[in-house]
Each structure stands twice: as C-alpha cells, then as structure tokens.
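Wed. Picked up where I left off yesterday with Ferredoxin-NADP reductase. The coffee machine is broken again, so keeping this brief.
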Amino acid sequence: MARAAVPGRLSWRVARLAEVRDETPTARTLVLDVPGWPGHLAGQHADVRLTAEDGYTAQRSYSIASPADGERVELTVQRVEDGEVSPYLTDVFSVGDPVEVRGPIGGWFVWRPADPAPVLLVAGGSGIVPLMAMIRARRAEGARTPFRLLYSVRSPREVFYAEELRAAALSGVEVSFVYTREAPEGWAGEPHRIGVADLNSHGWPASFEPACFVCGPTGFVESVADILLALGHDPRRVKTERFGPTG
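Structure written out below (tokens, as returned):
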C-alpha cells in the first residue's frame, strides 16, 4: 500500500532485495535486507527512495507487511500504471539490487500483542497490507487475541496473501470477504460494497470494545468508519489509514 512519503528525521539506509513473491497479477512482495533496521510495530510503514542517473529522486511510502524480524522487512507493492516508483519495484527491481529505505514511520495505527482487546480489521484492496502485518504479528507472538478480518476486493484474483489467509482462518482468525465486482462460485449474495449488514455480521459488537483498524482508499475508509461509529463503536478505538493518488 503506497502513500505520499512524509519527510522526517530518520536516516536513509541502503537495503537490498533478498526475495520476491507474487501476490496478484499486479502486486508483489519485496523481501528486503536492511542493515541497521531498528525494528518496527505491526501497522507502521517505510519510505522508499529511487535515484535516477541524472540525480532525480522519487520516493513513496509503503506499509510494512511483516512483523518485526531482525533486519528483514517485507513491503507489498501494488503497481500503478502511470506511477514513478511502483512500476520499477514490481517489474524491474531484481534480487540483489539496492534501494534506499527510511523508517519505521507511524505510531498510532499500530497493534501491540500485549493489548488483550478483540481486534477488527477492515481492509479495502491493498489496504490489507498493514493489517496482514498485525495478523502475522499475532501468529509470531503466539497470541490468542480474538481477530476478525473483513476484506473487500473487486474479485478473487485480486486477493493478497490468499493462501496465508486461508491458513489464518484455521488458526483463530475469522476471515470474511466482500467482493465488489466479481464473486467466486458458491459465494452467498451478489457483489456489493461493504455495508451495515457486513459489519454487523462479521465485526464485533460495540459492547466488546474492540480495537478497530480500517485501511484502504479514502472513500472506503470514510464509509466504514462512519458505519462503525453509527453502530456505537468508540471513536477513540476506530483507527484509520487511507491512501490515494500521490500526484
């Protein structure tokens, strides 16, 4: 998931691509070795900077897909056809190549395994990336925190981490999907956008005081947050991250 990069006081580090995993026809996970990486929390992000031979630079911010793992960091990048950075990262960037990375960034949209409250994750498209880091952190810590994920995608072909989400559903994470354009055979209902009924059926009651994390395009995030508040959820426990065009 990409955002416009936010300047900060963190130092740039030279990372190298160690491994690549295709997630969908237009997205792939980059496994980076980042010497001196200080660690991160699930939900944080990192800046990536590219420099051309003529000195021109372009940078974007990508959610971290992995839990803390020493000096290894995973970013899942969705290709934007007219983008400056994502086409290089998804189509050209090869194992062994260097790239500049800065982070971790962000301290509000994060989940900590010590928090015992139930967790509701609501993702729209590539907004699943930081939420997947939370699911993976739960597994890595051996936590038994109740997790529910409601994931909205256009079609089954665009589901990130499909096999891993199936495995997560067998290890205590309740995973539900909403398809907006094309649903798989046997899926109950017609393609639609997430609504009150979906959040009532697949979310937690407000009385449980869950920690809610919503991530996706701006319109999606605003709609879901409004529904959660209307259902009685505490605004202080509804945390949102949104993304859109970088200009």
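Quick read: Residues 4-8 have pLDDT under 50 and may be disordered.
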